[in-house]
Amino acid sequence: MANINIEYFAILREHVGRNKEAVQTNAGTAAELFDELSRRYDFPNVGNMKVAINDEFEEWDSKLADGDSVVFIPPVAGG
Amino acid sequence: MSRFEFSRAELNLEACRARISSPSAGAYVSFEGWVRDHNEGQKVLRLEYEAYEALGVKEGEKIVVEALSRFGAGAALCIHSLGALEIGELAVWVGVSSPHRDEAFAACRYIIDEVKHRVPIWKKEHYVDGDSGWVNCERCAAPENAADG
Predict the structure, then answer these.
(1) Which residue in chain B has the smallest CA separation from A74?
(2) In chain B, which residues have their Cβ closer than 8 Å to the Cβ of A56?
(3) ipTM score here?
(4) Do B138 and A44 touch (CB under 8 A)?
(5) Which residue among B54, B119, B138 places its CB closest to the CB of A78?
(6) What is the pTM of this model?
(7) Could you give the domains of chain B?
């Protein structure tokens, strides 16, 4: 089991109802963690999501390590 | 000094401009993105910007550095507003100074285009009819609006 810190923004923050949480998970990759939480919270389908680990963009198949911080990034709309 | 920042306060544009002024610059190009009163057929009352700031400042800085090296511009700065904004308020400001205008125009255009696509910023629009929505998230099939900042 790994302890992962998750931060939620925008549509996911509103959907989950909190800014952040710590989860214990057996998910080995960012994609597996997303699937696990998506099942738990029934995430809205927002199209092409990205993921960041420890404040860097990473691939969905990136391995997770104990203590990592993960952010799921819905489609952006700056400007 | 950083080249990309978020701001929750009203920007002092004279101070922003001063940060990129240089005796070697013969050209200055700026872009202002303003909050518009409509989007995709809906009347917009106001909006809110939210950002993943820790990653956003890194990605924004990367974009400005790319623009400077790609086009050979002298100096550039981009500041994006966060929080609640009213119609007409400044959402984003980009400034580029350079010895000549061509590279300043090109770098300014590059910065605003890349910031819109790459920096983790989200925009929630509140509509006149009482509805609200996260742009690009809740109407995925709609084409991205092309005219705004």
Answers:
(1) B137
(2) 55, 58
(3) 0.97
(4) yes
(5) B119
(6) 0.93
(7) 4-134 (3.90.1170.40)
Residue B139 has pLDDT above 80, yes or no: no
What is the mean predicted confidence (pLDDT) over A1-28? Answer: 97
Q: A2-73: what fold?
A: Ubiquitin-like (UB roll) (3.10.20)
DSSP conformation class of B45: E
Residues in A 10-69 with any Cβ partner in B closer than 8 A: 10-11, 13, 44-47, 52, 55-57
Minimum distance, in Å, between the CA of residue B80 and any CA atom of chain A = 7
pLDDT tens across B68-117, in order? 999 999 999 999 999 999 999 999 999 999 999 999 999 999 999 999 99
